[in-house]
Specification:
Layout: E1 3-4, E2 13-19, E3 32-33, E4 37-46, E5 49-63, E6 70-85, E7 91-92, H1 95-104, H2 151-155
Antiparallel strand pairs: 1-7, 2-4, 3-5, 4-5, 5-6
């Protein structure tokens, strides 16, 4: 998406299209891009500022933090508002600003029930119980031994 400031009408202009998924640059991440960034934006200039309003959408492949299974989730921003400062006349490429808007909406704790095809995931109750029976087959690590803060006082004889 390129915006030529010289050809941008004063009343603004509507832009619609796709930016290739490579814009996300998620090579060293657990998140994979699964499609392009789609946009439908109205662009208008206000002095030294370019205001883009409209919708953004992109699909990602995430890993569920509960089941560790991959799933697809589409990030939709139906009423995005992006402001770009105009530093020079000519052509403006807002792709980086649009990329950031989408990436900020990615979930910090992805769960497959929030995906495009929601899947229920139930945690086995034997992993949730606090006082679970020893016969459940789940090995638990022994509690680490902590220093007793009262040991020094316990060592003192109390006067009678």
């Amino acid at each position: 998406m390129k915006i030529e400031l010289a050809h941008l009408p004063e009343e603004g202009k509507h832009y619609e299209g796709e930016i290739p998924a490579e814009i996300f640059d998620l090579k060293e991440s657990d998140i994979l891009d699964a499609g392009p960034l789609r946009y439908s934006l109205f662009v208008q200039r206000f002095g030294n500022e370019l205001l883009l309003t409209g919708s953004l959408e992109a699909t990602f492949e995430l890993t569920c933090m509960r089941s560790l299974e991959p799933f697809h989730q589409t990030i939709r921003i139906p009423s995005a508002a992006v402001s770009i400062e105009i530093e020079h006349e000519g052509v403006i490429d807002p792709a980086e600003a649009l990329r950031e808007e989408i990436l900020l909406e990615l979930p910090t704790i992805p769960r497959c029930e929030d995906g495009d095809d929601p899947r229920e995931y139930e945690i086995d109750p034997k992993y949730l119980a606090v006082d679970k029976p020893a016969s459940d087959g789940v090995n638990t690590a022994p509690a680490p031994e902590k220093p007793n803060p009262w040991a020094a006082l316990d060592a003192l004889d109390s006067p009678d």
